[in-house]
């Protein structure tokens, strides 16, 4: 019996073209997160975007953080330091500002996943164990450590966002 592959989770749809074999799980996780964010945030009420039920992080924070942390971890994986713009984004995460909407946050995450996929596609497998420093303290990691953590951290926040949204939607 044939199954519609679009109904399967991303990792069950097969290998992604041009993505190095060892990085397939990273790319699958990021694509899965992006699909889930689009579903979760479809028709989400703008007025609940900054709400923090029981003191947990708001949906807006999760969406800002998902985009920002993915950008920061990929910067470290390239062996680069964070820019002033990235540091400003980090400082702004979770702070209500004009012009922030569900659509703009979802679009920003979508675009960041695209950038991540481009970087993943261009990452050579023989560089995966190269050392990389994280943050000002240059805490030791590797290219693959940073890319895997980017996927893991993304999926963790998608899960937290899902729970927060369920709580907010139950308070209708």
TrEMBL record:
SUPFAM superfamilies the record matches: DinB/YfiT-like putative metalloenzymes (SSF109854)
InterPro entries reported in the protein's UniProt record: DinB-like (IPR024775), DinB/YfiT-like (IPR034660)
Pfam families: DinB_2
Listed Gene3D superfamilies: dinb family like domain
UniProt domain DinB-like: residue ranges: 30-161
Protein name: DinB family protein
């Amino acid at each position: 019996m044939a199954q519609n592959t679009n109904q399967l989770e991303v990792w069950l749809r097969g290998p992604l073209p041009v993505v190095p074999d060892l990085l397939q799980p990273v790319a699958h996780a990021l694509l899965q997160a992006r699909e889930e964010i689009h579903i979760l945030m479809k028709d989400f009420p703008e007025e609940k975007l900054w709400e923090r039920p029981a003191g947990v992080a708001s949906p807006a924070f999760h969406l800002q953080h998902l985009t920002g942390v993915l950008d920061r971890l990929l910067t470290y994986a390239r062996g680069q330091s964070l820019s002033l713009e990235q540091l400003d984004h980090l400082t702004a995460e979770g702070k209500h500002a004009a012009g922030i909407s569900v659509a703009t946050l979802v679009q920003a995450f979508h675009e960041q996943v695209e950038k991540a996929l481009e970087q993943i596609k261009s990452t050579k497998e023989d560089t995966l164990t190269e050392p990389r420093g994280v943050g000002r303290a240059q805490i030791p990691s590797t290219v693959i450590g940073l890319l895997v953590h980017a996927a893991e951290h993304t999926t963790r926040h998608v899960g937290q966002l899902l729970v927060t949204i369920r709580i907010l939607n139950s308070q209708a």
